[in-house]
Amino acid sequence: MDKETIEKVANLSKLAVEEGELSDFKDELLNILDYFDKLDEANTENVPPTSHVMEIINKMREDEVEKELDNESALKNSSNPQEGYFKGPKVRD
Amino acid sequence: MNVTIGLEVHVQLLTKSKLFCNCGTNYRDSEPNTHTCPVCLGLPGSLPVLNKKAIEYGTMAGLALNCDIANEMQFHRKNYFYPDLPKGFQITQYDRPLGQNGEIRLDQDKKIRIKRIHLEEDPGRLVHPPSARYSLIDYNRSGVPLLEIVTKPDMDSPQEARSFLKKIRETLEFLDIFDGSLDGAMRCDANISLEGGGRAEVKNISSYKGAEKALSYEITRQKNLLRRGKEVKRETRHFDESQEITRSMREKEQEHDYRYFPEPDLPLIQLTEEKINSIKEKLPELPEEKRKRFLDQYEITKDQAKSLTTSKTLANFFEEISQQVNPKKTATWVTDSLMGELNYRDQSLSESNMNKQKFIYILEKLRDGDITEKGATKIIRHILDEGGHPKEIIKQKDFKAIKSQNLDQIIHKILEKNSEAVEDYIKGKEEAINYLVGQVMSETKGKAKPADTRKKLQKILEGYDG
Ligand SMILES: [Zn+2]
Question: ipTM of the predicted structure?
Answer without folding.
Answer: 0.89
